[in-house]
Amino acid sequence: MGVEDSAAKIEQNTFAAYGSAINATGLELTVMENSIRQFLEVGLSIKDSSKPPYFYSNIAFSNNEKVKVLNILGKEGGVTENEMVKED
Predict the structure, then answer these.
(1) Dist. CA 75–CA 87, nearest whole Å
(2) Domain limits, the chain
């Protein structure tokens, strides 16, 4: 089994102080109900996934207007209810 056959489901986690909570290339990916704080430019990123990725109900907290919750390069699957929220 190579990377092209790999799959991950990442659900209900809290990520803090990472450059990017998820930065994946070439796998099947489902990411849902996670929260992300203290990240750099992009909270969740996937490139060239083997199947369309799914990102549901993830929340990124930041006061930086230049960052974004999600970046997908390549196939795009289900992407709903991912939001950026200002930190208190």
Answers:
(1) 31
(2) 3-85
Residue 22 sits at φ, ψ, to 5 deg, of -135, 125
Res 4: pLDDT: 60
Rounded CA separation 51/67 (Å): 26
pLDDT in tens, 29-73: 999 999 999 999 999 999 998 889 999 999 999 999 999 999 999
**Could you give the CA distance from residue 31 to residue 16 in angstroms, rounded to a whole number?**
16
Q: What is the dihedral of CA 60, 66, 71, 73, to 10 degrees?
A: -170
- First-to-last C-alpha distance (Å) of the chain: 44
Q: Which of 75, 27, 41, 62 is nearest to 83 (CA)?
A: 62
Measuring CA to CA, how many Å separate 87 from each of 17, 31, 59, 64? 14, 22, 11, 9
Bridge partners (DSSP) of residue 8 are 29
